[in-house]
Amino acid sequence: MTSATLSITARPVRTNASVLDIRGDITASAEPALMGAYADAVARGAQTIVLNFAGMEYMNSSGIGLLVTLLIRANRAKQRLLACGLSAHYRQILDLTRLSDAIAIYDDEADALRAV
């Protein structure tokens, strides 16, 4: 596990969509940053949230749990979650946990934004 500092920022890309740029480790301690960035995106009117994992260094089972929590919140609000920038390892984990059934996964941000 790395000791990277976590940074998650919401970046509006359209009037109804934002990208959450994730840099660092997604563990239990990432909850305030992840939920805060999500709330920021929603406050700006985002109905589609793209999780950009290109800068993520590590995610453990608690991080997967945070994604499930985020998915539940988004589903309740009738919002879409998309993901991009996952390494092959983490893409496989999302497949194994079946999160990929609920969160559409794209190779890169450009592909994800075409789906918005």
Give the SSE layout.
Layout: E1 7-14, E2 17-26, H1 31-43, E3 48-59, H2 61-76, E4 80-84, H3 88-96, E5 104-106, H4 109-114
Parallel strand pairs: 2-3, 3-4, 4-5
Antiparallel strand pairs: 1-2
CATH topology: Transcription Regulator spoIIAA
How are the strands ordered across the major sheet? 1-2-3-4-5
- Any guess at the CATH architecture? 2-Layer Sandwich
Strand pairing plus helix content: what structural class?
Answer: alpha/beta
Task: Kindly report how far apart the N and C termini lie.
Answer: 33 Å
Assembly category: single chain
How does this structure look, described?
- Strands 1-2-3-4-5 form a 5-stranded mixed β-sheet.
- Helix content is 38%, strand content 33%.
- With 116 residues, it is an alpha/beta fold.
- It is globular.
- The N and C termini lie far apart (33 Å).
- The model has no long low-confidence stretch (mean pLDDT 95).
- It has 4 helices and 5 strands, in the order ββαβαβαβα.
- The longest helix is centred in the middle third of the chain and has 16 residues.
Write a concise synopsis of the structure shown.
This protein has 116 residues and is α/β, with parallel strands linked by helices. The chain is built from 4 helices and 5 strands.
Keywords:
38% helix; 116 residues; alpha/beta; Transcription Regulator spoIIAA; single chain
